[in-house]
Amino acid sequence: xxxxxxxxxxxxxxxxxxxxxxxxxxxxxxxxxxxxxxxxxxxxxxxxxxxxxxxxxxxxxxxxxxxxxxxxxxxxxxxxxxxxxxxxxxxxxxxxxxxxxxxxxxxxxxxxxxxxxxxxxxxxxxxxxxxxxxxxxxxxxxxxxxxxxxxxxxxxxxxxxxxxxxxxxxxxxxxxxxxxxxxxxxxxxxxxxxxxxxxxxxxxxxxxxx
Length: 210
Prior knowledge:
Elements: E1 6-13, H1 19-40, E2 42-47, H2 49-52, H3 61-69, E3 75-80, H4 94-108, E4 114-120, H5 131-146, E5 152-154, H6 157-209
Parallel strand pairs: 1-2, 1-3, 3-4, 4-5
Helix pairs in contact: 1-6
């Protein structure tokens, strides 16, 4: 039997040092889609540049990604650990530029996008520590509180997976409630229109009889 689905588009933003968490995110989304999409009529669509972006040209590579991936999404999910990423002509890194884009949307209309940010607090192998990159991560994390943000921290993959699953489940319930309210409003509007048409038809019929 045909059914209607509400699609929630999630955009994944992070440097390369949290590849494991990016894969976990995709796994959790796939799991929740399989178990909850039919019950709630909601499906999550995950955007990650590795699979969603296509070759193209722009002012720079990040500009190409921006034009292809940042046009329309419902939820921004950001991850940082020991690296902030490579700078772009417009921001300290691609991740920071993507976050600023999402935050600007939020400031203009708080209902237009959900922003979820995660920081990995696990130890970094000494050979991979970049003090300058790590300092930028710390500075950015401090600015989130100043912007009114609440972020989540984790120190291993299992804790992150559990937290993300709970957070996305909560998100699905929120969108499901909104979808139900929209359906109710639509039904009320249809009912009012139907009553109005019926009244007009009765009035027209009475005029003809007289």
